[in-house]
Write a structure and sequence with these properties.
Elements lengths: L1 H22 L5 H9 L3 H4 L3 H13 L3 H18 L4 H13 L3 H18 L4 H16 L3 H19 L4 H9 L4
Helix pairs in contact: 2-4, 4-5, 5-6, 6-7, 6-8, 7-8, 8-9, 9-10
Length: 178
């Protein structure tokens, strides 16, 4: 009798395993996050960890629309809970970089820079924001502003990464610095 029960249990397990993995569609990370993170609106809107989850998901999702959705969700949560930090600056910068609207690019990158300036952040995030603003201004024919932003990015990257880092060399050659 024990052997029959054990055999029945093992067969049931393998049948369930087979149905689960072969008949159910596997979900993407974005689909899973929508289920996990968005299930409780009142909790989701007040939790910094939720914002970080959206932000982290936005950095790994490949499709630009999904990436933008994740980053905008993260920013929305941060706004609702009233937090401005280096991560929110990074989110503003990323949304600005992904936007096709030049006015929105400029606005979001400047907001990111404002957050860094208010918090006295001089990290690689700050340098990246200045670099993006340098590119935006250069593309719009504003050479003086572009060079000013590029010099700030160059100095921060050089201090943090060293003079031989490819990012430092790229900035020096692209904006004729040094």
């Amino acid at each position: 009798f024990f052997f029959v029960c054990f055999f029945f249990f093992v067969c049931s397990f393998f049948i369930c395993f087979f149905f689960f993995f072969f008949f159910f569609k596997q979900k993407t990370a974005y689909e899973i996050s929508a289920c996990l993170v968005g299930s409780e609106m009142c909790i989701r809107d007040r939790n910094e960890n939720t914002a970080l989850a959206y932000y982290n998901l936005g950095t790994v999702v490949e499709a630009e629309n999904d990436k933008l959705d994740c980053l905008e969700n993260a920013l929305g949560v941060y706004k609702r809970i009233g937090i401005e930090n280096e991560t929110t600056a990074s989110i503003y910068n990323a949304i600005g970089s992904l936007s096709e609207d030049e006015k929105k690019q400029q606005e979001y990158c400047e907001k990111a820079l404002s957050i860094c300036d208010n918090l006295n952040i001089k990290s690689n995030t700050y340098a990246g924001i200045n670099y993006n603003l340098a590119i935006l201004n250069k593309n719009n024919g504003k050479e003086v502003e572009a060079k000013n932003y590029a010099e700030i990015a160059y100095n921060v990257y050089r201090k943090n990464l060293g003079a031989d880092h490819p990012k430092v060399k790229e900035l020096a050659s692209k904006f004729e610095l040094e």
